[in-house]
Amino acid sequence: MATASPAADGGRGRPWEGGLVSWPPAPPLTLPWTWMGPSWGQHPGEIIEFPILKLNGRTMEIESTFHMYVQPVVHPQLTPFCTELTGIIQAMVDGQPSLQQVLERVDEWMAKEGLLDPNVKSIFVTCGDWDLKVMLPGQCQYLGLPVADYFKQWINLKKAYSFAMGCWPKNGLLDMNKGLSLQHIGRPHSGIDDCKNIANIMKTLAYRGFIFKQTSKPF
Description:
The protein is an alpha/beta fold.
């Protein structure tokens, strides 16, 4: 998933961006989302965009897409800063499913894609640890929602990139694209565009021979 730190985006409203990547023997899922967070003066932070790309572990091509906007329930009104940063306007979240409903649809999508089969291994890929270590479990705890086991392990693309390239991408996706001579896709802080950038970076590193491994510690 592609994500930025709360300090970088002000924290009020961000898309959750994420992805799932599959490679032998596991498909990867890119997972960045957009959320509204505490550093924008709102607590708790709330996910407002939930995108996931499923990648083929052998070709690293996109096989399937999950993308929904999420109606924030604690702070239903987006701030002007949130809209300016993410490109998400109020009309895009009004009347959309709640996080609970979106998570139910994620589970349905995972099942449809065969990713819940115990014989199929897959793992999420995020741009940083924040999305799955802090943001999603924090909002789920606030709302009294369970966190599915498949959200409890992931690959931090920043760490993978630093292992492969020998330097830390301080500015996240922008630095990784620059270091790999890739053109940035779409708009920064757009969840679905961040997913596409994550997928492109992974594909490039894989073609250079880098082998991805889980970076998160067990919960």
